[in-house]
Amino acid sequence: MEGNVAIVGAGPGDPGLITEKGKTLLEKADVIVYDRLVHPLLLEHTKEEAERIYCGKIPRGKAVRQSRIQEMLMDYAHQGKRVVRLKGGDPGVFAHLGEEAEELSHAGVSYEIVPGLTAGLAGAAYAGIPATYRSLSTSVAFVTGHCRKNVPLSEVVIPQADTLIFYMGMHNLPYWMERLIAEGWDPAGSVAVVQWGTTPKQRVINGQIQSIANDVDEKGITNPALVIVGETAKMHLHLQWFEQLPLQGTSMMWASNGQEGAKNEMKRLGAHVFSYPKENVTIRPPKLPLALTAYQRVHFADKESVPLFLQYWKNQGYDFRMLPSYVTGENEGTNRALAANGLPPDDGEGEVELTIESKTGADVIGEHWQIAKRESSVVKEEVFARLEEGEWINTILFTSFQEVDTLNQHLKGGLARWCVDKTVVAAGKDTADALQAQNINIDRQTDGTSTEELISVLMARTLQTT
User: Fold this and answer.
1) What CATH number belongs to 251-278+377-465?
2) Is 57 annotated as catalytic?
3) Catalytic residue at 322?
4) Can you tell me which residues the record assigns to a coiled coil (predicted)?
5) What's the predicted TM-score (pTM) here?
6) Which of 35, 90, 302, 346 is catalytic?
7) How would CATH label the architecture of 4-117?
8) Nearest 5°: CA angle at 398, between 244 and 304?
9) Which CATH class is domain 121-244?
10) Of 119, 236, 412, 466, which sees the most CB atoms within 10 A?
């Protein structure tokens, strides 16, 4: 069966700005070929077994050849794979859409194009800059600030428009500003440069055409950045809104996979939140001398094993009237899980025939079934690696001492070293004690773990450092 390719726009950087159709295609894809400007958090929408191929192109650095990318798309499609070519912004704006679509068409590969929110307009909007404004700008044009090899910049035609948005223009910024002046633009005209637009790394500076090149050098503004020229550029000074979000600039890793409500509220207030690490749990079939239905006195060593046991029972098509007659739990939490699932715990008298646990370490009584197979999420590991490579994570939140221990084990004892250049936030005394035992400095601490308390302590940290 022949596969297909979807060329999908990932949007300008904020993972929440991808289209619903783009997200759905990511969830179903067998292969994802993605670029440097695709935010790593978008990969969380992909399935564990998918192949994720990084084709990042660093300006003036090493890159996967465009011809090789096109070959990969065709090869995987011919293997019957569903392929997503994930590109930053909109694939039709300075992103090789034409070349890739032509090659796929010539090869007879089925493809579709899913537009994305282009960085030029989105970056301007997140900087509080309208691309058009009735009394200031009635036209807008996109300009490439970079040309193919052996093509002089002088061959790029600067359009006649009230607002110009330059992509990839930082390296040649002095040339472009001098050329604008030579072509009649007012040297004192307004310019805004938006670096890493729509992300926690966003920085915006305003200036004039005649001096903006020096300004960006002094401020250390580099690619990726947009250069917005025109009278609407100065509106950033009083329409900026993104920078005003309480948690803007917070790119946080939370060593927990729960509290979705709290995470969503943090995102609403401007934070990017990544949960890590994560284990995928599947049911390990039992290897027992008797049929599972033969065991009538069963002990559950932890609460997680209860729903896994019932799910396995259902999957096998066993009659629920044949469930064990006597069940016991290791502790109060396990007993509550048993009762909640319709298995009221027994008083514990009688010899246990089978012990079921989801984690290792229980004192085994009778036969033993390690029901849970735990494996680190491949997706989470790849996303973490990309976040680390891009130096995205600047804050780490711990809400229990177990999270501290788990992450330290996952990092092979290197948690203290990893936290050195990050803001560490602890919720609860036990959590703080666990961090201090690892010689980790705590920057912010709160007593509880409610959404309000967590957001309050994160906002206090943000306000103190901005």
Assistant:
1) 3.40.50.10090
2) yes
3) no
4) none
5) 0.88
6) 35
7) 3-Layer(aba) Sandwich (3.40)
8) 125
9) alpha beta
10) 119
